[in-house]
Amino acid sequence: EKTGANPAKVIGELMKNGILANINQQIDFETASIIAGDLGLKIKRIRKVADTEELMSGDISNLIREDNAEDLEERPAVVCVMGHVDHGKTQLLDTIREANVISGESGGITQHIGAYQVQKKGKLITFLDTPGHEAFTSMRARGAKVTDIAILVVAADEGMKPQTIEAMNHAKEAGVPIIVAVNKMDKPNANLDKVKGELSEHDLQPEDWGGKTIVCPVSALKGTGIEDLLDMVLLTAEMEVYKANPNREAVGTVIEAHLDQSLGPVATILVNTGTLKIMNNVIVGNAYGRIKVMKDHNGKPVRKAGPATPVMIAGLSETPKSGDILQVVASEKVARDKADEIRIITKEDDQARMSASNQIISQIKQEKVFKLIVKADAKGSMEAIRQSIGKIKDEEVAVKIIHSGVGKISESDVMMASASRAMVVGFHAGFDSANVPRVAERENVEVKEYKIIYDLLEDIKKYLSGLIEAEKLEVVIGRATVKQIFLTTKKEMIVGARVTSGKITGKAKLKVIRGRTEEDEDKVVGRGVIEALRKVDDVVKEIKEGNECGIKFRGDIALEEGDILEAFVEEEKHRVIE
């Protein structure tokens, strides 16, 4: 109907392609596009709002897929800088950024938004700042591929460290090209060959050693080697050729988000495809809104942002999470309805969300392992803490240090704790940035700092005591002998009894003892509960030894004269680790 094509001709074209279809039958888009091509027609798929499952899982592959390769245009490469703490990631990023800031911008960046762009040889490169490591980790876990190239920073004087290997494994798993930046080449004890040897051990064979890994010696402090590093990024980007369609509704990924005092919920968005414009209606996770403010990495207001551009946006209903997907929709109503749908699905998760410490306890009660990330101010302190924690042993529950290191608590430590459901403890450590406590709060990670080693050990023991299942003890409070049966119904019995020891209380649980076993021990034949307790005509709370009473009994056995009723209460006894 839309094309005015003859139905018989369409059916004929389908038959030529081996498809027998009548006039009312539906055909898929791929088939329709082939037939349309044969008929000299051009058709385009209508874009619909993503499924709730897609938006929640972080899978944007279907959202950014393009049917027509002609719509695609080259976009900047997105680079994430990763590596071990104190190896100069931040210094390297700052040097790259400052070298590219136009003079007269008062030292450059007026606003930190977690990502920025630099220009080299007329081409843009998008860098994810330090939270990019955290974003990379959390987004990888949620299935969103946000990075094109990973720069692995290794200190020339220290070589590969556990966190370097962890970052390298993340990049390998994501299937992104790795460029190694060997930093601190200005140091007298810098050893480039030693670093190259360590890289080879981890399947990152340098190019000059016959491998495929690009290794760039740099000094972030002196600014040497930075131009070569950027050239290598561009070379890698040219080989891969990253493309997106700028002429469509935008789809983006949240790099980081926080609550701003003047703007309300703000989020740093990396646009994956399309062009994001001011006043667009958007869904971002279970938040929605209209973009009222949009700023670039220099804090300047912008009206639109194309693919691979990082921008800070404001105008959302609430603060989204790192890794959430942004999608532009037709109206605010569509955005609100879809956000409400996602909120209903995630409501149960939010209700189950407890305080960080309770979450640790409940999560690891099942595993019986208390995971820790430990940071200390010096190597000596670190060893002392590790040895002391190693001495805390119990049959039921174990302490496992999944990562330890000398230095301040970083966002990477918090993200590792979030992924492993661990607790972060610092000994005279502090935070390496003011953003760390905010990230810990957002990720619901318990972070504790200590000045005295004994306090640290005592708290670990307290946590472990909470993890050990409490023993349920039955404490006997009294006994009574059944003297007479007054009434028997299907569910209840009323009996007369005499308290022979201790006391009997209302609502107490009972064991019914009848006869003796060969070992001359009490034989429990059933259990029940006291529904009501009477002395003559009055309902009472308890009857003491030597007194007679009436008992309304409910249980799994019919009582007989002479039965002994043993009253008990259940108590939980928590074991304490010495």
Tell me the layout of helices and strands.
Blueprint: H1 7-16, H2 29-38, H3 52-57, H4 61-64, E1 73-74, E2 77-83, H5 89-99, E3 115-120, E4 123-128, H6 131-141, E5 149-155, H7 162-174, E6 178-183, H8 192-201, E7 214-217, H9 226-240, E8 243-244, E9 251-260, E10 264-273, E11 276-277, E12 281-284, E13 287-295, E14 304-305, E15 310-316, E16 325-329, H10 332-352, H11 356-367, E17 369-376, H12 379-391, E18 398-406, H13 411-420, E19 423-427, H14 435-442, E20 447-450, H15 453-467, E21 471-488, E22 492-505, E23 509-516, E24 522-535, E25 538-539, E26 542-544, E27 548-555, E28 564-573
Parallel strand pairs: 2-4, 2-5, 5-6, 6-7, 17-18, 17-19, 19-20
Antiparallel strand pairs: 1-8, 3-4, 9-10, 9-16, 10-15, 11-14, 12-13, 12-16, 13-15, 21-22, 21-28, 22-26, 22-27, 23-24, 23-28, 24-25, 24-27
Helix pairs in contact: 6-13, 13-14
In percent, how much strand structure appears in the residues?
Answer: 25-35%
Rg (CA only): 34 Å
Structural class: alpha+beta
Report strand order across the widest sheet. 3-4-2-5-6-7
Q: Please, what is the average pLDDT?
A: 77
- Fraction of helical residues: 25-40%
Instruction: Please give the number of β-strands.
Output: 28
Number of helices: 15
- First-residue to last-residue Cα separation: 82 Å
Principal-axes shape call: extended
